[in-house]
Amino acid sequence: MHIARKRFGQNFLQDAQFVRACIDAIRPLPTDTLVEIGPGLGALTRPLLTQIPHLHAVEIDRDLIARLQQTYAPSQLTIHAGDALEFDFSLLGAQLRIVGNLPYNISTPLLFHLAQFAPQIRDMHFMLQKEVVDRMAAAPSTSAYGRLSVMLQYRFQILPLFDVPGAAFHPPPKVTSSFVRMLPLHPLPYLAQDEAKFADIVIAAFSMRRKTLRNTLKTYLQDKDFQALGIDAGWRAENLSVADFVNIANYVPVNQ
Ligand code: SAM
Which of 20, 39, 128, 150 is in Cβ range 3.0-4.6 Å of 45 for a Cys bridge? Predict the structure, then answer.
């Protein structure tokens, strides 16, 4: 008997129908390099290992790691004990397929961490709060559109697949969940020459969502610059597409 730990965001998927729907969406193949984040009690691990000979797993909870070690041979399951937020996924090779019912308390930093490894990733399938998936996939000029949408849509195609009610988990989370597919864009349709600057500009623009770009981006752009870019300085961050943000980052001089 394992008592779910809130600090590790433990809500174990229990509903067989939704487990099946996740596995069907992932479509694991024996030759895939699959990595599961947070295998927990094995709700996804078990059915994955009926279809593939080997799986990598990153898990932080020592009690759960001990259980997994008792259940699966090391030749089947390679457990990387530790924090997925610090894990170097590039160590596992290329064409990675990363899956997981993610700990919701760290979902945003984890998505940002994983985005760094996009060149080594073939696809990702995650269970997340529906509210987070809505923000990931949001279009410009909608209330859900924000920094998360821009930074993830810069690198990934985001495909929400289906919603999952709280009752499918134990203990049930208070929120509805969604299963989402993330496909890295190769090549990137809009390339920021300086990705750190692109990230800084997105942060600055969304730091005060209700303020105009003239205000939030004043350290980067003057009125003449907005004109040259064809962007209305009276707009707000939520009105800019990913391409607009990349154009701004590529326009701003190198030393700024
Ligand atoms: N995959 C299981 C399932 O679907 O029932 C468990 C999902 S539960 C929502 C999240 C899992 O992630 C737990 O096993 C938890 O211990 C693990 N976890 C939490 N924080 C983590 C972290 N920082 N790094 C790696 N694993 C983490």
Answer: 39
**Nearest-CA residue for atom 22 of ligand 1:** 83
Q: How many domains does the chain have?
A: 2
Query: Measured from the CB, is residue 194 less than 6 Å from ligand 1?
Result: no
Q: Which two tokens stand for residue 164?
A: 């999952």
- Atom 19 (ligand 1) nearest CA: 8
Helix ranges, the chain (H): 16-26, 45-51, 62-71, 107-115, 130-137, 147-155, 195-207, 213-216, 223-229, 242-251
Inside any domain, residue 189: no
Check if 99 has its Cβ closer than 6 Å to any atom of ligand 1.
Answer: no
pLDDT for the residue numbered 2: 87
Cβ 9 vs Cβ 132: under 8 Å: no
CA 90 to chain centre: 16
| pLDDT number for residue 1 | 81
Q: Residue 229 belongs to a domain with what CATH number?
A: 1.10.8.100
Q: In this predicted structure, what is the pLDDT of residue 254?
A: 65
**Are 135 and 243 in the same domain?**
no
